[in-house]
Structures are given as C-alpha cells and as structure tokens.
Design a protein that fits this description.
Two copies of one chain form a homodimer. Chain A has about 325 residues and is mainly α. Chain A has one domain: Farnesyl Diphosphate Synthase, CATH 1.10.600.10. The first copy, chain A, is about 75% helix and about 0% strand. Chain A is built from 18 helices and two strands. In chain A, strands 1-2 form a two-stranded antiparallel sheet. In chain A, helix 6 (about 75-95) runs parallel beside helix 9 (about 140-160) and helix 14 (about 245-255) crosses helix 17. The two termini of chain A are about 15 Å apart. The mean pLDDT of chain A is about 90. Chains A and B meet through helix 6, helix 8 and helix 9 of A and helix 6, helix 8 and helix 9 of B. Chains A, B: Its cofactor is Mg(2+). Chains A, B: This is Octaprenyl diphosphate synthase. Chains A, B: Belongs to the FPP/GGPP synthase family. Chains A, B: One of its GO terms (biological process) is isoprenoid biosynthetic process.
Chain lengths: ~325, ~325
C-alpha cells in the first residue's frame, strides 16, 4: 500500500502504459464471459473477474506485443485468452484444493458448489479456445494450446506429488513451470509472435515469462512461511497444513536428520498434525537455511528474467518489465 | 447381443468400413493420452479408453470425411480430438453427477478421486486442442472450439435446470444439443470441412450429426424409464432418483393435474422420495402418454437425420449412416 503512494509500482506503470489496450481487454472479457443460455455462468465468472486480480498475465501479452512494435488488434484477443485460461484454472484449483478463500473473498465452490466451478471452468476453457482461434495465427495457437496442456500436466503432477516426501527440486520445478510459468511464458511469447517479432525476440520474451513465472511462484511459496496474511490473503503455513511439498519444505527435508525426518513423515505423510507443528517446521527450516536458500533461488530466477530482456529493442515497456522482475521478489527482501 | 450374431449392426458395418482409419485413431489416442511427467494421467485415461466405448463420435468424423472423398491424413487427428473431448466431458460429468458406474465399471472419480477426474479431464481437453490445431485448418478449429463452448454451456444449463419443474421442452432441447448433439454435429461437419467438401455437403453432414445426437439422447433418456439395466448399464429410474428433468418427465409434468403436480413437486423439488414413487411416476407418464410421445420425438429426429443425408453423394458409408439413424432409436421399438 505504502508503495503505491510513494512511487508507482511496476504493475501500476504497466497498467498506465497499457491503459487503453487493457480497457479493450476488459471489455472483451466481459463480453465473452456471458452466456445466452446459462445465466449461472456470468454469476460465477463475474464473482471472479470483479474480485479484481492484478491482470498480470494479460498485461504481459500486451507488453510483449508493444515492445515488438505490434499495431494490429489481435493482442487484445490473446490477452483475454490468457486471462480466461487463468480464471478457468483458478476455478478448478479451488475445487481440487477445497479452498474457501481466494483474493480475500469466498471461493466460487463455496458460494455455489463444486459442480458449478467444474463446469463454468470448462466453459471458460472453451471460450479461451474460441478467442485464440480468432486471430487466425497457427503458431500462436500452438503456443497457447501447448501451454494449456502443460498447465494441466503440472496440476496432475502436483496432485500425485502431494504428500510425497520423495518429491525433489526437479519435480517442484516441473510443477511450478506447469502451474504458473507456462502461462506467463505463453503470454509473453504469443504477444511477440502475433507482432511478427524476429525469432530471437520471441525466444527472449518466452525466457522472460518463464523465469518471471518461476520467480513469482517460488516467492509465493516462500511467503506462505514468512509472509503476513493481510498482504498475501493467505495464512502463514497454509501449505504446511495442506501438506504441500513446496521449495522451503523440500530443502528442509533434503537436509533432515533421521529424527527430523520422522517429524516430516508424521506431519506430511500421515496428516497427524498437532498444535505447534508449524513452529517446529519453521525452526527446522531455519536450522537448515531452507528459507534463505529458497529466497536465493527466487532472486536468481528474477535475475534470469531481467537478463532475458537484454537482446530486446530499447523500449519504455521493456524497462518496466525489467523492474517487474525485481518487484515480484521484492516482497521477500 | 442377438443383433450382432444374426446380422451386423450399422456400428459393426461402420467399424468394418473404417477399419484402418480407426486403427490409426486408436494409435493416435494411445500416443497422445500419455504424459511424460504425470503417470497418473495414463492410469486414469487408460481406464476409460479401455472400457471400450463404441467410439461412435470419431467414426462419424471418419465417415463424413470418407463420404466427401477425403484422402489426406488429418481426419484421424480430428477423430481423436472428438474422442478426447468426449472422454474429458465424461470425466467431468461423473464428478458433477457423483456417478459410481460408467459402462458397467466403477468411474474414475470412485477409483481415484474427484481431483484426478477434474485435472485429467482438463488435460484431455488441452490435448484435444493441441490435436485440432495440427491440421492447420482454421475453419475446423472454429467448428470444434465452438462445439466445446456449446457443450460446456449445455452442462451448466443442465445443472441450473436440474430439479426445476419449470424446465420446458425448449430448455431440454438446448441441454441435449449441448451435452450430446454439439459434438456429434462437430464430428460430422469437421470431417466434411477437412475434406474440402462443398458448403451444402458440410451443412448436410452438420444437420445429420445434430439430429442423430438429439435422437440418440432422447432415446437414452427414454430408456432410463423403460430400458433394462443389462442393456444400458443403468438402472431403471436413475434419472428420476437424480431428479433430472428429462423429456418423459417434462411431458408428464406439463400434462399434470394439480394433485399430480404436488407429487412431482415433492419428488423432484424436495428430494423426499419414497419407496414406490418410481412406480407412481411411471404410471403418471403412462396416463399422459409421455413415454409414447417421447418415443415419437426420438423417431422424428432419426427421420430428420436420414433426410439430411439425401443431398450427399451416393456412397456405401452414406447408406450405413442412414441405417445408423434408425439403429439409435431401434432400441425403443
């Protein structure tokens, strides 16, 4: 909050720079999320759309197209596509996670029911595919449909890795690429491709989105252990109580003594968690430097994101993306 | 069963005629349903794929392409796309319906969990979009992505119309178009379009698929009240116990006396069903001729399907499709 009073955040600057394009995206989203036949659909989607996420992903598409000098109309469709895919996955995630809160508000599965969340999520997926077809660009279609498959694969992998102490950093990275980075990188790459950017620029923007998404997700997973709930909308240790194997936990478990290991086995594999277990978990993470090492990883991915931008044309939006990479991990400093 | 000993059914004949193409479809489906990273995916999909549906929908795509003289390779991708969309919707349907059986076997949501069904369904949707992009035909992409949206819309509509006595035949038809006919007509139309068929042939094959799908679904809904469970894999009155407003019920309710209406209100709106209610329901349907009228509707849609074929080139496969339209309602005679 202080941030936005003292100086605009990179997100604010992006929003200002892309203002009229984002207006067009919002209009398109509102137009396409309705359904002539099924009034339940806009009820559920409006709830999510008006909860007002930061719309980071569609802004990435618009930003990439802008940097690459695009002047056509189709980046708006691609940005809306990306937001629809994101919203659909949120609906399904909340069913799978049995979440009760999202962005500080009750989730759709709680307000309506799981059935509505599953089916309205399917509707948004289908709508996203209709949207992505309209620009008539087959390469963009390949990028976005591949991203959708990677996302779903990541979600399934996360489900089967859940509560499995053997989950290593490689698997974690694959999950993070699926659940977060795949859509970030598809957002930036598709913006470049619709603009007809040269191959190396499209590649650089893909790399930027990939690294930014990974930095963003690692930061999110770290904040679950050291954030404060008013900033994140989540409670400290939610992932721990859900027995999710995120990076801080994976690092602590890798370094665990036999005695510590049996603690982890009990709290993660068997669900017999007790009062005070979260404090023990935090102490063990601290002992092995797991939180600090996780923070280092996040910062390293943010640096990779910044580096990826180097070969791109000099452009005000490029500078904002540069600062955005720092911003997603600044919460950790 | 007797049927297939005495004379081949239209389905058997289609399968024989399209044998090598269907082999290619099966191979492609097996290849694309795996996931390098998430072994849970093939477990769940193999369970469904090997349960061995009749593969009616992919055969419709192949049949349409064949009638239109197609000699390229891409109808196989489109047929696999259609089957993936179908399988994904089955997975999500079983979650929404809380089903325990599908094709006489336990459902995936029962064998694994709802979470796996939701996420693996998403994966198959995404895979279907990857597959449909590959032929590089934008018109086919429009047809199939529109169908996916219509399917999802129909499912949501079905959910909000559930247990609502005010549901009329118009809404029922919209639901049926969504949950069944949209994929049938997309299957046939996309087969025609990939073959570069003239507009009126593509239109005729769309109409055929639409009418066939509606006839098929009405027959299915009728059999729920008059079939036998060994033939359908369902128990008599399952829809009644689920309080689903299908055509026989809608017709009986439209003709109900005030006294009958309060019976319907109790059993459909309030869930207070008692032993013997199904017999009362059947007697009321019989009294108002609801079952006979439903049968008439199914036969009329089958006739429309046959009629749609008239303008198509004379072809052995066209004759099989003609007989197939009779076959999907023959179970009712």
């Amino acid at each position: 909050m202080m941030d936005s009073i003292l100086s605009p955040t990179p997100l604010d600057r992006l929003a200002a720079e892309l203002g009229s394009d984002m207006e067009a995206v919002s209009t398109l989203i509102r137009k396409r999320m309705v359904s002539r036949h099924a009034p339940r659909i806009p009820e559920v989607t409006a709830h999510l759309v008006e909860a007002g996420g930061k719309r980071l992903r569609p802004m990435l598409t618009l930003a990439a197209a802008r940097i690459c000098g695009y002047e056509g109309p189709w980046h708006v469709h691609l940005a809306a596509t990306v937001e629809f895919i994101h919203t659909a996955t949120l609906l399904h995630d909340d069913v799978v996670d049995e979440s009760a809160q999202r962005r500080g508000r009750p989730t759709a599965n709680l307000l309506w029911d799981n059935k509505s969340s599953v089916l309205v999520g399917d509707y948004l997926f289908a709508r996203s595919f209709q949207l992505m077809v309209e620009p008539g660009n087959l390469r963009v279609l390949g990028i976005l449909s591949n991203a959708a498959a990677t996302i779903a694969e990541g979600e399934v992998l996360q489900l089967s890795a859940a509560r499995d102490l053997a989950t290593g950093e490689d698997t974690y990275l694959q999950i993070v690429r699926g659940k977060t980075a795949a859509l970030f990188s598809a957002a930036t790459e598709s913006g470049a491709v619709i603009a007809g950017a040269p191959e190396d620029h499209a590649r650089a923007l893909f790399e930027y989105g990939d690294a930014l998404g990974i930095a963003f997700q690692i930061a999110d997973d770290l904040l679950d252990y050291q954030g404060n709930s008013s900033a994140t909308g989540k409670n400290i240790g939610d992932d721990f109580r859900d027995r999710k194997l995120t990076l801080p936990l994976i690092k602590a478990i890798a370094a665990a003594s036999p005695e510590e290991r049996s603690f982890w086995k009990r709290v993660i594999e068997t669900s017999r968690q007790e009062e005070g277990d979260i404090d023990t978990a935090l102490a063990l993470m601290e002992r092995h430097g797991a939180l600090a090492a996780t923070r280092e990883d996040a910062l390293r991915w943010a640096e990779r994101a910044r580096d990826a931008l180097r070969t791109l044309p000099d452009h005000p939006v490029r500078h904002i993306l540069h600062d955005l990479a720092d911003y997603v991990v600044a919460r950790l400093l």
